[in-house]
Design a protein that fits this description.
There is one protein chain. The chain is mainly alpha-helical. It folds into two domains: 139 residues, no CATH class; 89 residues. The chain is 70% helix and 2% strand. The chain contains ten helices and two strands. α1 packs parallel to α5.
Length: 250
């Protein structure tokens, strides 16, 4: 096996082996759901019971919908087994290496992309259960980081080849990332500045492309926003706590 594809395949297998090893070696005590992971699972089980996106029988809007519905979907197919979630997250985390390679290759060189992918494969916070970014936790970080990397890769490809597909893909992935961790919505205005920088001095073209990406972003999130309005009788874009968390975290 030779060439960049062969090396990338080896890196992916290495990443998967480390992540699966970390997940499968967790002790029963380490697998206990204690904090946010327990809350996400409670919401997922409420969805499966037909109670909707709720906790203790009351509808909520203080979490993004993607991760609880992800857990609910996996439980629906495979049964209520958190280990299945961990294994799927280990696989998803391994695909992050491929996206990091694309980002590094696009911005710099193929060699840089391979080095970045290898570092991602070996990066402990993406592997070990002690870190929130690892697949052992039933937290949003694994999916969130994957969606962020996908959006960055799509935006960088847009900067090089300004196609409709890249703009649509970036809008979808940004929306999924925001519905996983709603705090990302606060960074959207900076995307407009970046588009203006990429398109300068064609301001109108930058504004047009920003509007298109935003419309895709908003349309993906629209069904959930409508749900929030129907349930709470007020406009809540994805989550009613995203602003507070964004301010506290930044």
């Amino acid at each position: 096996m030779s060439g960049a594809r062969g090396k990338l395949a080896v890196i992916f297998i290495l990443a998967l082996a480390f992540r699966l090893g970390a997940v499968l070696s967790m002790s029963p005590e380490q697998k206990v759901l204690k904090h946010d992971d327990n809350r996400y699972e409670q919401i997922a089980k409420a969805i499966l019971k037909g109670e909707g996106f709720s906790k203790e029988g009351k509808p909520i809007a203080w979490r993004g919908p993607v991760y609880p519905y992800f857990i609910a979907g996996v439980y629906k197919v495979f049964g209520s087994n958190p280990d299945i979630i961990r294994i799927i997250q280990a696989i998803a985390g391994s695909f992050l290496c491929l996206l990091v390679y694309l980002i590094g290759q696009t911005v710099f060189t193929q060699k840089t992309g391979l080095c970045a992918a290898l570092l991602t494969a070996l990066y402990q916070p993406f592997i070990h259960y002690l870190y929130w970014g690892g697949p052992g936790y039933l937290y949003t970080e694994t999916l969130f980081i994957l969606f962020i990397a996908l959006s960055v890769a799509a935006l960088l490809r847009y900067a090089r080849r300004q196609s409709l597909m890249n703009m649509v893909l970036s809008g979808i992935s940004l929306s999924l990332a925001t519905m996983t961790k709603p705090t990302l919505a606060g960074f959207f205005p900076f995307l407009g500045l970046w588009l203006w920088y990429v398109k300068r001095p064609a301001f109108l073209k930058a504004a047009r492309d920003f509007l298109l990406i935003f419309m895709v972003f908003f349309c993906v999130a629209l069904p959930w926003t409508i749900r929030n309005y129907i349930v709470f009788n007020e406009f809540i874009f994805i989550s009613n706590e995203s602003g507070d968390v964004f301010i506290k975290g930044n």
